[in-house]
Design a protein that fits this description.
The chain is an alpha/beta fold. The chain has 3 domains: about 10-95, Rossmann fold; about 100-305, Mur-like, catalytic domain (UDP-N-acetylmuramoyl-L-alanine:D-glutamate ligase), CATH 3.40.1190; about 315-445, Mur ligase, C-terminal domain (Protein-Tyrosine Phosphatase, Chain A, Alpha-Beta Complex). It is about 30% helix and about 20% strand. The chain contains 16 helices and 20 strands. It has helices at about 15-25, 45-50, 65, 85-90, 100-105, 120-130, 165, 195-200, 220-225, 275-290, 295-305, 330-340, 365-370, 380-385, 400-410, 430-445; strands at about 10, 30-35, 55-60, 70-75, 95, 110-115, 135-140, 155-160, 175-180, 215, 235-240, 245-250, 255-260, 260-265, 315-320, 320-325, 345-350, 370-375, 390-395, 415-420. The strands form 3 sheets. A 9-stranded mixed beta sheet has the order 7-8-6-9-10-11-12-13-14. Helix 2 links the parallel strand 2 (about 30-35) and strand 3. Helix 6 packs parallel to helix 10. The radius of gyration is 23 Å and the shape is globular.
């Protein structure tokens, strides 16, 4: 018998996390209903669940059904403000997110990583370091594998990427390590203002105690403000100044100072490039090093990392033009960092579902480096207005049109960068699909089949 036996549980959201939650509760004897706005025809992967005792509420959310629930379990990204959820919560029905539910079943030490940009890289590099040290390590969360799928395996460590959406629905969640990388404007289509977004990120620390640790970007005032009240031991990283304790950049070396010891690592040994990736590596190394991972082992894991798909991924070099897929660049701050690592002239393909963020931080890098701006998606009119007069602006109705335009506009020695600054959901199912369609269009260009593809 479990605490969920015979309980009426509604799981909201039929993505991978929702399916994982439905299976989790069904295996523990709950009466499970999986609810989603989409129709059965739009969700072909649900058939096996019916044989596992899961019921369905599809094509909308039945408020009467929700009001009778003993628990509502939310997939990441499902807003608690959905009317059926909000009405049930007002009647006293508990509403918990997948992260909270999973954490309560996981006794292992957990590292939680959040921030506007760099989360996936930090999570992956950190997981690689723990694994290289010989520790059985779960790596997932917002990155890919839902945390609920970690339950029941004897892990040594859990390294988990968290979004602000996932942090909205925690209650007692308490990571041993809380890592906050940066806070720049994002998701203002979800939050009323930057204060709301920052507050969601700050929830990472709300249950920590003096026995826990917080890794913080010393160069980001919003990060320091978000963590101001934490009783956890603070460990800083900085790329702008040397720190007496923590991880910092000194010339071409990363310098780690802790417990009276100093280690130095040559930054040019890393395969990933850019100032932002130096910051990512610094953050990723701190928890393994403090926990006892030998510095040489942690550094070798960082140096072996070649980057993640759709994050400044070189797709091809065609007739002297390098094509980069940065489809994961879904906010303005991410595009700024990606452009910082490139030389002019750049053709930038941008646009998508508008998050209504401030576009002004992009003005200077576009004026300095972008010779042609090719805009797609619903945000294209607002972006065209914001950058009018800074560069040549072109419009495209599809990714194939955008790639064809970029090929015609970009001279040898130039770069084409897909870094949309927007989410993908106006034209694509995900940023991954957007990146794959971009790469396929690039590889279909004349001259692309001559052995000059990127890795």
């Amino acid at each position: 018998m479990t605490e969920y036996h015979n309980k009426n549980v509604i799981v909201v959201g039929a993505g991978r996390s929702g399916i994982g939650l439905a299976r989790y509760f069904a295996a523990r004897g709950a009466v499970v209903t999986l609810s989603d706005r989409r129709s059965r025809e739009q969700l072909p992967d649900l058939a096996p669940l019916a044989g596992e005792g899961v019921g369905f509420d599809l094509g909308g959310h039945n408020e009467a059904l929700f009001s009778r629930a003993d628990l509502i379990a939310l997939s990441p990204g499902v807003p608690p403000e959905v009317p059926a959820i909000a009405a049930a919560a007002a009647r006293g029905v508990p509403v918990l997110g997948e992260i909270e539910i999973a954490w309560r079943e996981l006794p292992q030490p957990l590292v939680a990583i959040t921030g506007t940009n760099g989360k996936s890289t930090v999570t992956t590099v950190m997981g690689d370091a723990f694994r290289a040290w010989g520790r059985q390590t779960f790596v997932g969360g917002n990155l890919g594998t839902p945390l609920i799928e970690a339950v029941g395996t004897p892990w040594d460590w859990l390294v988990v990427e968290l979004s602000s959406f996932q942090l909205e629905t925690i209650e007692r969640f308490r990571p041993r390590w809380a890592v906050l990388l940066n806070i720049t404007e994002d998701h203002l289509d979800r939050y009323p203002d930057m204060a709301g977004y920052q507050a969601a990120k700050a929830r990472l620390f709300e249950n920590q105690t003096a026995a826990d640790r917080a890794v913080l970007n010393a160069d980001d005032p919003r990060v320091l403000a978000a963590a101001a009240g934490t009783p956890a031991r603070r460990i800083l990283f900085s790329s702008s100044r040397e720190l007496a304790e923590g991880m910092s950049l000194a010339g071409s070396e990363l310098v780690w100072r802790w417990a009276g010891r100093e280690e130095r690592f040559a930054a040019d040994e890393l395969r990933i490039r850019g100032q932002h990736n130096l910051e990512n590596v610094m953050a990723a190394l701190i928890p393994p090093l403090v926990e006892g991972c030998p510095p040489a082992v942690a550094w070798a894991a960082a140096c072996a990392f070649a980057g993640l798909p759709h994050r400044m991924e070189l797709v091809a070099d065609i007739n002297g033009v390098r094509w980069y897929d940065d489809s994961k660049g879904t906010n303005v701050g991410s595009v700024v960092k990606s452009l910082a690592g490139l030389e002019a002239p750049v053709t930038l393909i941008a646009g998508g579902k508008d998050k209504h963020g401030d576009l002004s931080p992009l003005a200077a890098p576009i004026a300095a480096k972008v010779a042609n701006l090719v805009l797609i998606g619903e945000a294209a009119p607002r972006m065209a207005e914001a950058f009018n007069g800074l560069t040549a602006i072109h419009r495209a109705g599809s990714m194939a049109e955008a790639v064809a335009a970029a090929a015609a506009l970009t001279p040898a020695g130039g770069t084409v960068l897909l870094s949309p600054g927007c989410s993908s959901f106006d034209m694509f199912k995900s940023f991954e699909e957007r990146g794959r369609i971009f790469a396929a269009a690039v590889r279909a260009l004349p001259g692309a089949g001559e052995g000059n593809h990127g890795s």
